[in-house]
Design brief:
By secondary structure, the chain is α/β, with parallel strands linked by helices. It has helices at 36-48, 56-59, 67-80, 83-93, 122-131, 152-164, 187-194, 196-216, 236-251, 276-287, 297-302; strands at 2-4, 109-114, 136-140, 173-184, 220-225, 228-233, 257-269, 272-274, 293-296, 310-316, 325-330. The chain has 2 domains: 2-164, Rossmann fold (3-Layer(aba) Sandwich); 173-330, 2-Layer Sandwich (Alpha-Beta Plaits), CATH 3.30.70.1230. The chain has 11 helices and 11 strands. Strands 4, 5, 6, 7, 8, 9, 10 and 11 form an 8-stranded mixed sheet that branches. A 3-stranded parallel sheet has the order 1-2-3, sandwiched between helices. A hairpin with an 8-residue loop joins strand 10 (310-316) and strand 11. The longest helix is centred in the middle third of the chain and has 21 residues, at 196-216. The chain starts with a strand and ends in a 6-residue tail after the last strand.
């Protein structure tokens, strides 16, 4: 198999494996190639400023103004070859033309090219893809010529899928968190009885109280759907006390909420939390009665010594999850 991200020709055009080409220079039937005058001017500037950052704006625009990267680039150029060797290699590149070989390639071939590549026009890779039998051609959004800047993750995903047939994508971060779900009991019936305007006003008051309590107990709002909240805490005792405080405050509005908590490892996706632990928390909340704060056995064990007391609610099968879960309700008066 062959993955093409440039040819192996020079420090600036090959070792970086940037956009690919079968020919570098302009020709009457290859109009997107570089003119001889432009090529020679570029070589003169690079050799004259060897170990500097000549050409960086075109080859790695996303990092061209990063001081650390600029230092690394200059050091890389100095260590890759001498100025005279660099000019010799680049002069040879100007004579490369393997267009006639392309139809003879008989191995699976992947060609990648950033559409905004300022060094090698995207037409160069399109030309090869049209002439290599069965080639897979992928254009990616990006402006960098090198594969280790900008959209490197997307490039690796394409190569992984090409070589293995599977694309795993980036591995999600995981954190240990206590998740709290709250939900208003009989919300649909109450909304119908009150009418849209009054219900909306009551719902706004509910949201304000929940957010106030989350902030007080250092909880983080993860999501809000209708009349329900998903929040996360880095301490299970604070999560339990926040749930109890929410239940008490909301009762003053003439509403009741059911709450469920579970602690476990969650996947972090942006500002969201996902994973089995989140699903377990949602299922526990669904089993709670009005005003009840229901927790998993994990949460109960983690808050030992906190002064919180619990009533045994027995074992339950949580919908869509294997095995049985032992659940407990927080006893009133122990959460302050």
């Amino acid at each position: 198999m062959r993955a093409v991200r440039g040819n192996l020709s020079s420090a600036h055009d090959g070792a970086h494996h940037g956009g690919s080409y079968a020919r570098r220079m302009w020709a009457p039937d290859y109009s997107w190639g570089t003119s001889r005058d432009t090529w020679e001017s570029f070589l003169d500037a690079v050799v004259r400023n060897w170990g500097g950052t000549t050409g960086l704006d075109e080859r790695v625009p996303s990092l061209a103004h990063d001081p650390q990267f600029r230092d690394w680039w200059a050091r890389f150029v100095r260590q890759s070859a001498s100025p005279s060797a660099g000019r010799t290699i680049w002069s040879l590149i100007a004579d490369i033309d393997i267009r006639h070989v392309l139809p003879a390639i008989r191995v699976p071939t992947l060609i990648l090219h950033n559409t905004g590549d300022r060094t090698v026009p995207v037409e160069s890779s399109r030309y090869m893809a049209d002439r290599i039998p069965g080639a897979k051609y992928v254009e990616l959004p990006g402006v960098d010529h090198v594969p280790y800047a900008g959209n490197s993750d997307a490039i690796l995903d394409e190569i992984e899928e090409f070589l293995t047939g599977v694309r795993h994508g980036p591995e999600l971060d995981r954190v240990l968190a206590t998740v709290l779900f709250t939900d208003i009991v009989d919300s649909t019936r109450k909304a119908a009885e009150m009418g849209d305007r009054r219900w909306r006003s009551l719902l706004e008051a509910h949201h304000a109280l929940v957010r106030e309590r989350l902030a007080h107990f250092r909880g983080r709002e993860i999501d809000t759907a209708g009349d329900g909240f998903l929040a996360a805490f880095d301490g299970p005792a604070r999560g339990v006390r926040a749930a109890c405080a929410i239940a008490e405050d909301i009762r003053r509005l003439g509403l009741e909420v059911r709450s469920g908590l579970h602690a476990g490892e969650c996947e972090v996706s942006g500002a969201k939390l996902t994973g089995i632990a989140v699903h377990i928390g949602a299922r526990i909340a669904a089993l709670a009665t009005g005003g009840e704060v229901l927790v998993s056995n994990t949460v109960k064990d983690l808050v030992a010594g906190s002064g919180l007391k619990f009533a045994d609610r027995g074992t339950h099968t949580l919908k869509g999850l294997p095995g049985e879960s032992h659940l407990f309700a927080v006893e009133r008066g122990t959460s302050s």
